Structure formats: C-alpha cells, structure tokens
Amino acid sequence: METAALVAPVTALEFLQDAFLLTGEGPVLTVYSLQPRPKACASLSLLQNYRIHGIRPRSLTAELSSILGPNSYDIVVFGGKAVRLVKLHVDLQNGEHLCLEILGPLMELQDWALDVRWLSGDKHSLLGVAVAHNSALLLDIKTGNALLQSSCLEGCLLYSALLLVHETWDDTILVGGTVFNQLVLWKPGAGGDESSDSQHKAPVERRLLGHSGVIFSISYLQEKGWLASASDDRSVRVWDVGALGGPGGKCGNLNPACLRVLYGHQARVFSVCLSSGNVFSAGEDGACLVWDWAGEGKVVRTLKGHKAGGVRALTISLPKVVCIAGEEDKNAPWSQSKFVVCTDHGTVYQYSDGQWEMVWRGTTDFQSYCVMETTTVSVKNSTDKVNLCAVGNLSGSIHVFPIAHPQCGILLTGGSGKIHSLIWHEAKEKNYLLASVAEGFVYRWCIEVELDGNSSLALNVNPLPSFLLPPCAKRWLTAAVCLHSTSQGLLWVCGDRRGSLLLFQEGGKLRQNIRDGKRIHESSPTGRKQTEDEGVEAEGNGSGGDIKTEMMEDRHPTLNPLSCLFGVHGKQGVTSVCEYQGLLYSTGRDGCVRVFRVNPTPPEQPEEKSDENKGDLQLEVLRVQRACKGMEWLERILFLESDITLEEAEEEEERTENKGRETRFAIIGFHAVHFVVWDPVRQERLFSVLCGGGHRSWSLWPSHKGFWPGYGALVFIKQGAVMTSQTPGESIGGKAGGWGLREGVHGRGIGCVCRLGMIRGIKSENQTSPRDLAETEGMVEGGHWEVVVTGGEDTSLTVLAIRPHSGSIKVLSVITDHISSIRTVTAVTRQEGGGQSQKQSLSALLVSAGGRAQMQCYRLLVGWDQQRLAPSCQVIQVASHRLDEHWERRRNRHKTVKLDPETRYMSVVVVDEKPDCVLLALACSDGALRLFSVSEGKHQIDLLWETFYHQRCVLSVAACSLEDGKGQRYTLLFSAATDGKIAVWDLTDASSLSTGTQPIPSLDIHTHQSGVNSLAVWAEKQGLHKGGCLVTVASGGDDGQLTVSTIRVQYPEDGVIGGSRGTSQISEALSPPNQLHLHLHSQSLAPLAHAAPLTALKLLRPGLVVSSSADQRVCLWRVGSTGVSHIGALCSHVADAAGLAVWEGQVREEEEGDKQMKTSFESEQEISLFKNTAEQFSNEEIAGEVEDGGPVEAESDTGDLVCQTSDEKGGATASKCSDRAESDTVSEGNTERGFRSKKIREKTGWVLLCGQGFQLLHVPNTEMWSARREKDSHRVKVTLQKK
Is the separation of the CB atoms in 1078 and 1004 below 8 Å? Predict the structure, then answer.
C-alpha cells in the first residue's frame, strides 16, 4: 500500500543554505526550492509510522564538501523513536531538479528522540541524540549502533531538549525542558556509559526557574549568549546564560538571569527562534509574533496566514530574504503617488511631493454641497493618460475637468435637482459618467479626451439614454458596471441606495419602455454624436467654454430595468458591483458579498414575469458570502490571484473557456473602528488600519485593476483632516502576507468527507507557459483529479481536487455558510456532456448538515480550467433550512414544545431521487429521525415527517433500494442510536407521508452495547432467495465491535413468511399487508475489531467492508455466510479519524503479447477500495463467472451500478438490487471472450481518510501490498555497543 496524497500538520521546518526549505509533514520530507519562486521539487516518505519532528542538515566544511561533492547534502531526519539518514542531490544546471536518496535503514531507538545534532569535528557520521528521559546517545548513523549513552542524575521526563555540540562528545551541552517546568543544563560527556549506576550519571550544572508550564521549545543564540524558552504558560522567556558548549564544554554564567518575559500569545507557545535583534515565536493561536526584545519586549509584527490551529514548527533564515523575480509594480510607487480632496467650500486640492496645491475652485453653487469622483482615462490617438475629476452640486450641475488642466473643463447639466452620486466607469476604451438626480433619473454621458489643433486637451461629450430607477425610498445609484454582449447589446448592472440590483439594456433588438409608454425597437447607438434635435445643446469650442446638456423628458428615451432584485442587500444599500470572468460580484452594508449572473428568462415560464422582470434577461444570485462576524459595512472586493499575473488576467478576460467560474477574492470594509481587507477563505485580516469606522471618504493604494497585491496604504478623512496609514514618501512594497507553499484544508479537524467523482485534464493546445510545463507533465494523457468535499469543525466546507499521480492538492472553493460544526455531507453526482467532455466536467447536488440543526444545499459545477490547467468549481446556493426557523413558521406553535436550539444533525443519507426533488433522511441528536424533501427548482427544503421512536440521540442512517421480479421498487431506511439498536423503516411511499403521520419501524435489531457510529448496507441478489432477498447491515460502534446482521426481506405478494432467528421484531399486525415483511436471518460479530471506537464504516463491494477508528488503523473485513473475517490492517498518519470515503479504479493492461503495456487509472463511483485480498474470495467470483458462461460486471445496461450503498458520512444514492442482476458479480481480473480474450483487467482501490488532515491511500493489489509491507519493515533496533 502506498500514500498518494497526504495533508497533515507540518511538524518540522529547516532552511538549507537559504536556497531550499525542508519540511516534515507526517513521515514525508519535502524539499522546496526558493529561487526564483517557492516551489516543491522533491518529497519522500521516510519514517513510516512516525511523524518528522526535526530535520538537521550536515554543515559542509571544505574537506567534507570534497567527499560528498558540491551538489550533495547529508540530512538526518528524526521523529518519535526513529532516526534516518538521507542525501539530497542538486542539479547544478537546474536548481529545481532535486533528488532524495535514502541512506541505510530506519533506526529505532528505545526512547523518544527530542533533538539530534551532527558532531562538527567528526569525519565519520556520528550524531548526538537527546532522548525523552533526560539521556543522550552518541549514535553511529552508518552502523546503527549507540557508541555511548549518558544520563543525567535528575532522571525526569523532558518535553523539549537542545543539544549544543562542538567537535567532540565531551564538549556537548544538553539543555532540557523538564515536566516540572524547569530548564536544566548538564554535560553528557561528564557521565559514564553505565547509565544505570548513579555514580556515573552527570550532575545538573545549571537550573533555570520561572515558567509555570511545561517547556515546548528551546533556542540558543551563541553570539549573544541568550537562551529562549517557549512554554505552556503562554509566555516566552529570554535568559542570559552566557557561552554554552564549545571547547571544554562551557556551562555559561553561574547564575543566569531572565532578561525578558514576553506575553502576547492567546494560547500555548509551541516554537521559538532567536536572532540578534528579535525573538520569533509561534503558538497554538495560529500566529507568529516578532518581538523587539531590546525595545521593552513589544510585538513589532504579527504574521498570520494559517487557519485556526496551532503552528507547530518555526525556522528563520537571516539576513537573506527570498527575492521574487520578474514582478514589477506597474503602479506609481507610494512615494510618488498623488491624491485629490474636495472641501466643503467647493475647492479641489491635490497633494503631491509633500505639498498641497489648489486645482479648482467652484462657484457659489458648489460651496454648500458637492460630490466628487475621479478616474484615469487615455487620450484619444495617444499613449498619454490624464486624470479626470467630476464635481456635482445641489442644482444639477456637474463640472468635469482634467486635474492637470482644469481650465479645459466642461459643465454638464443633469436635471434641476441634487446630484446624489457620480459614478465613473471604463469599458472597452470608453469612459462613462453616470449622475443620479432626483425622481430616480440617472443621466449618462460618454466622455473622450482628445488633442485639438493647438495641442491642448479637449473633452468630447456624447449624451446617452438615461436610466429610470423603480419607485422606492433613497432612489439613486451607488454602483454600476457595463457588460458587453454582442447579441444583447450593452448590458448595465447597477446597484442603488435601497439595496437593489438592477439590469438595464442599451442597444440590441429588445423593446424598452420609455416615459410616455411608447415602445422603441432600437436605442441610440452607444458613443455616436447626437444633434440638438435630440435634446443636446453645445456651446463653446470645448477648450474652455461650457457645454450645457438639456434632457427633453418628452422626447429623449428613458430605459427601464429589465430585471430587479429588490432590496437584496437590505435597506442600507449596494456599495459596489464588478464583473470578472463572466460573473458579477456585489457588496452591501448588510455584510454580504453576492455572486450572481445574467441569465435568459426560462421560455416555459413567460407568465411568471413580474413587473420587475419584464425582459428576456434576469439576474440570478448564485451564492452569498458573508464576511467575519461584526463586519457589516462592506465597500468592495479585490480578487486574489497569487498564481497569475495581471497580464495573464487581462488575457483571460478575452477567453471564453473559463467564463462563469468563481474566483477567490478579499473583502474590503469597516469592522468596528478599523478599515479591513478580509480573506473569507483563510478567515484572516490581510490589511487593517485604525480609522474610526465607516461614514468617511477613503481611497486605497494601489488599485492593480481590482487585484490585491499583498500590500497597500489607506488615505482617509477623519475629523476634517486627511490622514494616511503610511507616511507619504516612504517606500511600500513586497508581499506582506508571505507565500503559501502548501494549501491548508481545515484549521480544525475534518468530520466528514464525500467524493464527487473524477475529471480528467487535457492540456490546452495554446498553452506554452514555461512554468506550467513541469506541472502539466503527464497530465495530457492518463492524469486525472479526484474531486472531494470535506466538512470540518471550523464550520466550513472545502471542495478539493486531489491528483493521485503527483499528490498535489488544489482547493477549489471554501463555503462558510454554516454557523456551527459540520457533521455530515452527502451528494448526488452526475457527469455532464458526453464523450471526452464528460470526463472534464461534473455536476453534484451537495447537502451538508451539522450543528444548530442547520442544513445547506448547493449545486457544484466542476470543470477544467484551460488557463491554469487545473479543475475549477462554481458553487450555486440552492436552499437552506434550520429547525428553529421552521418552528417559528408553524401554526399553533404555542401548543408544541419549542425545539432545542442545540439540536445537531448527526448523519444524512439520500433515500430517493425524483425528477423534481430529492428525499433525505437525517439523524438528529434530539432523538428524532426526520425526512426532508429538497427541491432545486423551487429553492426550498421541506420537512415531510419526523419520528421520535428512538428517544435517544440518533447517530447514523443508511438506505437501501430493492426491486422485485415485477419491477416494483421498495426503499428501506436504517437508523441507529446511542442505545446500540438499529431500526429498519419501510419508506416505499415516503413521498406521500406528511408531518402528521407517525410511522413505525418494521424491524428493531440490537447490535451493540453502546452507540452505533456507522452503518453499511447492501442487498444480495434476489435469485438465491425465492420471493425475497437478503439485506446485510454492517455496523460499527463505540464498543469497538463490528457487527454484521442479515435480514430476510419477503415481498408482500408472496404472502408466506419464513421463520426468523431473531427475537427483536415489530409485530406483523402493525404492518399493512402491502408492505415488506422483515426478519432477522443471522448475526455475527467481531468483538475487538479496533482498539478504539469505530468512527466510519464503508462498503467496498458486497461482502467487503473497510473500517476506520481513532486507533489510526484502517481495517479490511470480509463478510460472508460463515461470519466476519479480518483480511488486513493499514496504519494511517491521520489522527482522530472521523470521515472515510472509498472508491474503485481500474487498471487496464493491453494484450499479453504487447511489449509496451499501457496502464491508466479510471475511477468509478464509490464501490470498492481493494482488489480481492483473500484468494478464496477471488476463487468464488471466478467460479461464478464460469458457471454463468461469461464475465459479468457490476453495472447495468445504462451504466448505473446494480448494487450501491450510501451511509451517514456521504454516499451517492441508495443502494439498488435488481432481479436483472441475478447472476451479477464483481469480477477481479475477468477475462473477456472473443477477440478481447487476451486482455487482462485488474481493479485497484482508493481510500480517503480524514481527521486531523487527510490521507489518500492507493492499493494496487494484494501481492504488491504484501511486498511493500515486508520492504517497509526493514528497520534496525539501536542498541548500546559493548566495549
């Protein structure tokens, strides 16, 4: 068995000559090349079942470099009780081409290794090892023998240790952090090698007291003689210990003093590093703090980038920094930036080079009230750019002028009332000015800047048809964006102060309403010159005169909105609207970002068009993204694209392959008194300025055309003064947030997982980017991505794409709509398109549920991104449901008991799929079993019925679908609770049930002594049992037991019911005559299946199940008529295992005579993980094949699986068992007849285990698995060498 992908806590970090970064993640060592851009170049699994806790490269001397070579590095890796030596080979011509080579076997110690150091003066491979029981070893890394062992006289347990080595073992100093919250210093060379004799044990030389918690990390700075310790008491202490180690093994100052006690972390401090001027610490709060220890020990910088959860490892490399090549800021630097302000006296000032200068002074009409907006435009037929400023007043006048040449300004007239707002918008090299006035009118102009004959600037103005907003309070625009559509003309999407989103159309053949009720078929073309007959009066030559525009209301066309989402952003208004890659994004003061699009109105529903949606186009909201708690005042969004340059983003705008795919973004707004740039995916602040809160004018530098570059400066007005977050003239630049080398999944544990399917990526023909060649190698043919969804305790859903070939992981989308932890998730998946395109896209209806009785439903559209050569995902919100909200809408609710707000959904399963809805069954912590109907077309979730039969917390549910010989379908639902009982429900007519119906189970089975955490159900073929079939239920519980119960199902038309071996059965008199008759046929169990409670149980195929537990083992079981048999156990690197998903892939090999054998993996829907691991199981299948006269696959004629299952942690649909499959069986290595008789077909499996991280395991076949286990067991025990 081999690991295809692993996401686990990073527990070790180490720089290698400032050119590489070494990381330890579980047992895997990964090497990142830092130049020119951080990138993973090599990885290797080293420590088998141990986690890497330390990485120690060997320092290269001149003599050692001649032995190893200039491009080789010896590295020792340790963790737990294991130590291993590897060699890193670097290609000098290509620094990114790295290779890791294992040197020698895995060495197992008799105690936990806390620190390992190379002896610098040793030409041989000798290591000093500090172990947990305050001892030290001198280890020969090549032979695996311990040459010396020394113990301290104080033989207590250590939580951390630091070895300070020099040339010889006698010079070594060990600093240990004891379980008694102390630091002890002693010399391993002072004690003998007979550690059992107290006379030969080394005494404690120094003892440092002060911490009130255990010590997790120790760091020493030799040049200053400082020692830093990080503790469980949330503090970091810096000690003046003096010179430690070196020739003679110096022990430093006799009475070390504590220089600083640094408090700043919100939780335990796990790691600390020292530099000459700073202290770096990282802890359980997920933050890395930089302290200026000399300046009163204050925090000078807080580095955040990790999600909730502890930062376990920290390393620094000084003084060099990573330089990112090829990135230049096209914006003017902050030191040369200019900004413009307008005073309440109607005067415009510009700040430049440290000086304020007056640009324009308005007339008396502009002194009492004015509104100002600026933009940058290009001069026509020139490469120059100018800044335009527009100022409006109370009387409807708008003055537009270039800031550098205010004398060239023009005066526009928009009605006779107050100018509520001005909006500049640039689209297709044209600049539009929109002015909102009284009575909901929005006047528009297209403004161009050109050079006249005297080489002076001139403004050319073309008036456009005005917009008319729907009647409401606060009737003016606050945001607008123009969409270009060749078939529909120009489309404008606007947001108003009432919180509505509006769609206008200009041009095209769509009929528009005008104010007098007449219809016009074609509006005036955009940008053409209008004459005086059209209501425009021009005066002056445009170089210094006035141009007065009069809109004739009875003759000028006014456009009404085609579609209106009234008050979608609440009553506080829309603050911004923007468009990117075919999707629209809007923000408002309701704390939400809405992602929406323009869609044609469905032709089958023309009568449903309201007065607000009169056209053939409508706005459709796809999803809603909330900011952090308390951040309600949102201003706009900036897109986050760290892996794509701005030039590529502009080119991508012209592409059509990736239209309609959502992009990651940051939210800009006000959180209390701070201006914040918030990342909703990482749940962290990217930028924050204390400004006093909202209701103020502000501007953020730089713009980057809507992208967040990772740094910025804020200019804002506070109490009548212009203030900046950075001093003007300073240099600002560089990515403040650092680089994400590896994407995280969840900050806390993963509770559930569901696999959606597989998509295959095809390299684009026009993709020639050099940096993508390495990433796309092998992707053109045979490469595929597995798409899964995980739900965690951090209340988020994450859509992931995993590429098993390389182990790379791509986070496609993060959904943060849940208000509590997510306990269960399931999906109904279908492939889209046909042929080759079917493998490049899939669609899934995803349902997630968890705490606070909350359920969310989404439509996920996963496709292939041709620009980035990776999968992409679009999330569409379908519906949501909460029990407490449902209770509030009930009639006569005063007569019922209010639902417990702490009710949790524990498990969900798809019971049935119908054309118009999907039926779901949910297990609830309040003892109820509830059945819901999800209608995607109506965007609603309805509660059909509920029952409190269990009267205890219901932990798991599963479903099974049966079909008799006449084609009649039946549905069974299985529910299990904390009392160890399983109830079986007949839900054949579930859709006809109502909330007033009180169903009763058809069968009740006692299986466990305590709670039943997971169920796996499948049905045997009906042909073996006349008039019925056998349904097998495998269950895993808190008692660590695996129980298999077989139920005999008798179809109602047979009438005769066979005997039952069970005693726990509901009376037949309670069941109607047309329902199924169920009896317990047999029961078998494995009492000690795991050493801890079973957390998940999955069906691989009928008769083969896999289980997981908190004991970090994945076990494979064969379930047959003779009982339950254990086939094999696999060790996992995932702690607190909770979610499990398994599926099957096929390895197709060409004919036996073909020397060049092609192999490709094709994933199938969730059925199986392992190949037949028991030889007798395979023989039974082969015998079944021979008896049937040919191979039979477990697929129907339509491609649907004949036998499927789904359980509480997310499966596809309810299982099916049909009479058409009487002779069906899944065959391993089946041989096809005829012209394909020589082609061999093998099956391979995948298992995805989730908990504190996740691990994707690949099992090719039994023989290879056994061979790997024997190979991995090659390890040696480290023993003390006798003299």
Answer: no
Check: CB of residue 63 under 8 Å from CB of residue 69.
Answer: no
Q: Does the structure show a pLDDT above 90 at 955? A: yes
The residues, ordered by sequence, that sit 6+ positions from 271 with a Cβ below 8 Å of its Cβ are 216, 217, 230, 281, 282, 283, 311, 312, 313, 314
pLDDT tens digits for range 828-857: 987 665 555 556 789 999 999 999 899 999
Assess contact for 1167 and 1201: CB atoms under 8 A.
Answer: yes
User: What stretch of H or E contains 1262?
Assistant: helix 1262-1272
pLDDT in the model for residue 280: 93
Cis status of the peptide bond prior to 36, with omega within 30 of 0? yes
Show the tokens assigned to 166: 């020099």
Q: Where are the extended beta strands (E) located within 119-254?
A: 126-131, 135-140, 145-151, 158-164, 173-178, 183-186, 204-208, 215-221, 226-231, 235-240, 244-245, 250-251
According to DSSP H, which parts of 555-660 are helical?
646-654
Which tokens belong to 376? 């940058």
How many angstroms separate the CA atoms of 271 and 290, rounded? 12
Cα separation, 1206 vs 1197, whole angstroms: 21
SS3 category, 953:
coil
Contacts of 149 (CB under 8 A, 6+ apart): 135, 136, 137, 138, 193, 195, 1280
Please, are residues 985 and 925 in contact by the beta-carbon 8 Å criterion? no
Q: Give the alpha-carbon dihedral of 868, 870, 876, 878, to 10 degrees.
A: 180
Q: How far apart are the first and last CA of the chain?
A: 41
Looking at residues 1215-1225, what average pLDDT do you find? Answer: 38
pLDDT at 1182 exceeding the cut of 70: no
Q: What is the pLDDT of residue 833?
A: 55
In the numeric block, which tokens belong to residue 171?
A: 């010079």
Q: State the average pLDDT over residues 1257-1272.
A: 51
Task: For 370-439, give the secondary structure using H, E and C.
Answer: CEEEEEEEEECCCCCEEEEEEEECCCCEEEEEECCCHHHCEEEECCCCCCCEEEEEEECCEEEEEEECHH
Most confident range, picked from 476-490, 723-737, 809-823: 809-823
For residue 133, count other CB atoms closer than 10 A to its CB. Answer: 15
CB of 458 closer than 8 Å to CB of 451: yes
Within 999-1093, strands assigned E span: 1003-1006, 1012-1019, 1028-1037, 1042-1050, 1077-1086
CA 657, chain centre distance (Å):
23
pLDDT tens digits, 72-84: 889 999 999 999 9
* pTM given for the model: 0.81
Helix (H, G, I), strand (E, B) or coil at 1180: helix
User: What Rg value do the Cα atoms of the chain yield, rounded?
Assistant: 35
- Rounded to the nearest integer, the mean pLDDT of the chain is 78
Q: Which of 1, 2, 9, 45 is nearest to 1134 (CA)?
A: 9
Distances (CA, A) of 930 to 338, 921, 1077, 1130: 62, 6, 23, 36
In the DSSP assignment, the letter for residue 265 is -
Cα 518 to its chain centre, rounded Å, is 52
Question: Distance (Å, rounded) from C-alpha 734 to C-alpha 334?
Answer: 12
Structure tokens at 601: 């109105």
Average pLDDT of the residues in 196-225: 86
Helix (H) or strand (E) holding 466: strand 457-468
| Local structure of residue 171 (DSSP, 8 states) | G
Element (H or E) spanning 1186, and its range?
helix 1175-1188
Bridge partners, 979 (sequence order) = none
The DSSP element (H or E) to which 886 belongs, if any, is: helix 883-888
- How many residues in the chain? 1283
pLDDT tens by residue, 130-146: 999 999 999 888 888 88
DSSP state for residue 990 in the 8-state scheme: G
